[in-house]
Description:
Layout (H helix, E strand, L loop, with lengths): L27 H32 L6 H14 L1 H11 L8 H20 L8 H25 L5 H7 L3 H26 L16 H40 L1
Helix pairs in contact: 1-2, 1-5, 2-4, 3-4, 5-6, 5-7, 7-8
Amino acid sequence: xAVSGSGGSRADNGYSSQQxxxxxxxxxxxxxxxxxxxxxxxxxxxxxxxxxxxxxxAKGSYHSLYYSIEKPLKFFQTGALLExxxxxxxxLPGIVPSSVVLTAFQVMSRVFxxxxxTHSVKEVQTEDSVLLFVVxxxxxxxxxxxxxxFSLLNHLPYLIKWARYTLFIVLYPMGVSGELLTIYAAxxxxxxxxxxxxxxxxxxxxxxxxxxxxxxxxxxxxxxFPQLYFHMLxxxxxxxxxxxxxxxxE
Length: 250
């Protein structure tokens, strides 16, 4: 975390004579907490990036680098669940132009990939597709949390803003490709082991096929990915064009 649509006008709602209310930002204590949170998350993803580079230099190969950053990846990716409420739903909409649905979907899907697929299906941990989405996530999160930190401090460098709204053009398809290929690689092992599946009969009269569920998850990318991608392209045009106009007016 799908397309953030524009709301109706004030005139449509009978409030054309009133000024639109601005969303209140967090107070001083909340701001301090959010800054600390984002600094910690930025540092955490930097640790993952350094771990990947060191492991690659030591091994001389990019294969199976997942094991070198498995623990910090699980910790910091799961830590993003805090963001789902504290940062997205409550504070960030008033601070940065970010889609709540977009960021929430990304957080939940990445936690799902981390635990329900990569952690649960050990056989896929050596797949190169895992490295594909890990690298995409790592670069994206370093930029994103840096962006949030400087936005909270009201001192956002243009380079970070540009990176936030430009590098996703490559990183997002790269990450999605890695995620889909990893889920696809997990399917035979899930089917063979019956992982997380519940068969009838049972006392709850309920069945669940995790193999089918993963296929449905893969299919869900078809309508969701284009919406999220084009939303980000729209945000890029909106944010960066506004920045250029502001620079010209100075």
